[in-house]
Amino acid sequence: MSELPTSAVIDLQRAHRSVRKFLDTPVTDAQLAAIIGAAQHASTSSNLQVWSVIAIRDAERKARLSAAIGNHAYVTHAPVFLVWVADLARNAELIKAQGGEPATFHLIENTLLSGLDIGIAAQSALLAAESLGLGGVFVGGIRNNPAVLSAELGLPKYAFPMVGMSIGVPDPDEGTGLKPRLPLTGVLHHEQYDGDRWKPSIEQYEESYEGYFAGQGHPGRSWARTVAKRLGTIEGMHGRHTMRDSLREQGFDSE
Amino acid sequence: MSELPTSAVIDLQRAHRSVRKFLDTPVTDAQLAAIIGAAQHASTSSNLQVWSVIAIRDAERKARLSAAIGNHAYVTHAPVFLVWVADLARNAELIKAQGGEPATFHLIENTLLSGLDIGIAAQSALLAAESLGLGGVFVGGIRNNPAVLSAELGLPKYAFPMVGMSIGVPDPDEGTGLKPRLPLTGVLHHEQYDGDRWKPSIEQYEESYEGYFAGQGHPGRSWARTVAKRLGTIEGMHGRHTMRDSLREQGFDSE
Q1: What is the Cα–Cα distance from A166 to A21, expressed in whole angstroms?
Q2: Which domains are seen in chain A, by residue range?
């Protein structure tokens, strides 16, 4: 890859690893303001700004949230746990104040737009955190139990807990490395979609995947088997097969 | 904000503006590889890698895509137009090759997960591009007409065109500035959601919003009215009210 153009930003992006073990060092309010402020400057569909983020530091609340989604040390021991919330509640109030109605909030387009915009904002926040020497991990597991999350956080109608994120100073003893990804040719197409594009490289990818996990003390893994276990069975959804009901309960009918 | 910690990354993030006018300078394959490679290193839910991206440079194809979504010069004149595709087709083949079935692909959780992961990847790509002196804009408008997009790009079942992105060297004559966002206090909550948090600052925000657009030659605008027009009426959806059918046609039943 040495011939490709690069930058300090790209170097940092390419060095990304999910951090699940943290030192006890707190994340300050100033750090948090810098991180979330950076996220606010990222793109937002039609400037609708359809998200809020809740910063949780209280140990008992973190423990309750963690218990609700399967008990994870990277939630309870994170100096700060962020919950990224799809938030159309502000927009609903603005519309009603003008005598209007939230006439489109039941549509799946707005559920999807919220997901996209939260991906954009949350990734911006994580990279900002990484640029300050912090680290973190996305926690999709909060969608295992949206009802408990919504109650614990006091979410109103039109607010839905989309994804979590643990942030803190990385514990240097954790020792995870860079998880290999599919070769670029497997995901980048030209002019039209080519369904065979990833196939010639899959064997090479499986080798690097197995090698990565063997180095972490878990030999014999296969990406294809992991995918099949995660997406090929309802059990692999860890409760998320009822997501449509969960969305509906918070006003995201997704029709 | 001078007391907040910062970094070169955060400075770049805070300088983000959407670029819709480009010089004729091409975006090279090496630049594209650097940009998409950076995006691949970002977080992906359970390492499922559920996206592909299609790079379109052909002038006639760009013109057809642009015509399908309302004719935008920032699509036809972009040196490269990227279409970010939710791609479960690879995963489906991997599962079937092991004798399994894509038993969860009909669930809205996987539609939502694809949206989140594309937000993460696409934002990573845009920031990587900005770090190389390029600029760009997200084009959610491709969801105005997913059927034509899917046909033009030859998308199979389990592949859906989620969001577009124009990339190129910014035309310095465009002259857009930094669009103001809600104050940090309006979106960052502590411990629990506070529905009143944004209200004290909304008047100040409306002033900065009006000021920004007045500076662009469009005085008298209001964020509240923009939100009401965009989300308070079916017309504001520009065709996206049928998104659930469009998703279903590509295998994303979203149940």
Answers
A1: 10
A2: 6-171 (3.40.109.10), 179-237 (no CATH)
Please state the pTM of the whole predicted model: 0.98
Q: What is the pLDDT of residue A1?
A: 46
Sheet with B188-190, strands from edge to edge, namely A135-139, A159-168, A80-87, A51-56, B188-190
Structure tokens at B51: 């996206």
Ranges under pLDDT 50 in chain B: 1
pLDDT at B2: 52
Using the Cβ of B96 and the Cβ atoms of chain A, whether some distance falls under 8 Å is answered with: no
Question: How many Cα neighbours within 13 Å face the side chain of B194?
Answer: 14
Contact by Cβ (8 Å): A118, A82: no
CA B192 from centroid of its chain's CA atoms: 29
pLDDT score of A192 more than 70: yes
Q: Which residues of A91-106 are buried (b: 16+ CB within 10 A; e: fewer)?
A: bbbbbeeeebebbbbe
Task: Tell whether A75 lies on the interface with B, counting CB pairs under 8 A.
Answer: no
CB contact under 8 A, A33 and B102: no
As a whole number, mean pLDDT of residues A146-175 equals 97
pLDDT band at A3 (very low <50, low <70, confident <90, very high): confident
Mean pLDDT in residue range A180-195? 97
Residues 6+ apart with CB under 8 A from B105: A231, B88, B92, B158, B251, B252, B253
B216 touches chain A (CB under 8 A): no
Cβ–Cβ < 8 Å for A108, B247: yes
ipTM score assigned to the predicted complex: 0.98
